[in-house]
Amino acid sequence: MSGGARGPAGCRRGVEPVIDWFFRNRRTGRITIAQAPNPALVVFLAAAALRLIARTSGTVGTVVDVVASIALIVWSVDEIVRGVNPWRRILGSGVLAWVVIGVVLS
């Protein structure tokens, strides 16, 4: 949408400005949907892979599950607090809700 209809105060109307606002990295100005994983996400991915590959159970399985859940909670809170755009903050909020609901229901 280049030069599309303009609304109040010269703002473009339509979907493009919303998408731009939602995904634009506030630090770099680039569109950011995914990023290289931070340490908490690496720990979660390693724990999840260990759980799938080793099929851990009992106390070891519980420890792996707890480590994975804590790592995912840390990652999601980090995204909520320091996410570079609304998409990253909403993603963190959704993942946090998913983990909390999963813990409560288990």
Report on this model:
- The structure is a single chain.
- By secondary structure, the protein is mainly alpha-helical.
- The protein has a domain of 71 residues.
- It has four helices and no strands.
- The longest helix is centred in the middle third of the chain and has 25 residues.
- It starts with 14 loop residues before the first helix and ends with a helix.
- The N terminus is likely disordered.
Q: Structural class per helix/strand content?
A: mainly alpha
Q: Distance between termini? A: 47 Å
Any idea what the radius of gyration is?
19 Å
Principal-axis shape equals elongated
The number of distinct helices, counting runs of at least 4 residues, comes to 4
Proportion of strand residues: under 5%
SSE sequence, one letter per element: HHHH
Overall pLDDT metric? 88
- Main pleated sheet: none
Unreliable parts: 1-10
Q: What share of the residues lie within helices?
A: 55-70%
Would you count the extended β strands for me?
A: 0
